[in-house]
Specification:
Layout: H1 21-43, H2 53-58, H3 65-83, H4 93-103, H5 106-119, E1 124-131, E2 134-141, E3 156-162, H6 169-172, H7 176-182, H8 189-199
Antiparallel strand pairs: 1-2, 1-3
Helix pairs in contact: 1-3, 4-5
Bound molecules: manganese (III) ion (MN3).
Length: 200
């Protein structure tokens, strides 16, 4: 029951020009594959071998760092690929209403996410989470995420943006804010909304 690398739901070049195909190929087939392989290695022969990713996240304090780093890496990237793709337009209905009520507008949400990603020192993630039925923006270091029992801010992540340099360095070099500005062109809002509904 080893974990496996999920296929991308689109081609590696599908996010051009906002995220270049070389970055996507390396990010998916090298970085994510390494998290999967190292997670399987870290769990081999332990009781964690038969746990789901979600079960691992919620009990992360009882696992060694290799499970935290690589299990988080596997979960985070699987979510990341799913919420990218063709930008399918504005959000609607209850989800759009909740965004407007919480952040003023969709632009307000983007600003808050970009600020979380820009101010995260070193490597990590910016997150939109559902917590007690409400939307909230937060960030985590390294491959941590808000599902982990050790997270500072806990909730169900419905949109995550990878701000590790490997996510943008080939195209944007040190310009993380430019990458964060561009990524909104390739967010699959249908998927984010689906995750929002499921998290309520
Ligand atoms: Mn990454």
């Amino acid at each position: 029951m080893a974990f496996t690398l999920p296929a991308l739901p689109y081609a590696h070049e599908a996010l051009e020009p906002h995220i270049d195909s070389q970055t996507m190929i390396i990010h998916h087939t090298k970085h994510h594959q390494a998290y999967v392989d190292n997670l399987n290695k870290a769990l081999a022969g332990t009781d964690g071998e038969n746990k789901s990713l979600e079960e691992l996240m919620s009990n992360m304090s009882s696992y060694p760092a290799a499970v935290r780093n690589n299990g988080g890496g596997h979960f985070n990237h699987s979510l990341f690929w799913s919420i990218l793709g063709a930008n399918n337009g504005a959000t609607q209905g209850a989800f759009a209403e909740s965004i407007n009520n919480t952040f003023g507008s969709l632009d307000g949400l983007k600003e808050k996410m970009n600020a979380a990603g820009t101010t995260r020192f070193g490597s990590g993630w910016a997150w939109l989470i559902v917590k007690d039925g409400k939307l909230e923006v937060c960030s985590t270091p390294n491959q941590d995420n808000p599902l982990m029992d050790i997270a500072e801010v806990k909730g169900t992540p419905i949109l995550g943006i990878d701000v590790w340099e490997h996510a943008y360095y080939l195209k944007y070099q040190n310009r993380r804010p430019e990458y964060l500005g561009a990524i909104w062109n390739v967010i699959n809002w249908n998927e984010v909304e689906k995750r929002y509904q499921a998290a309520l």
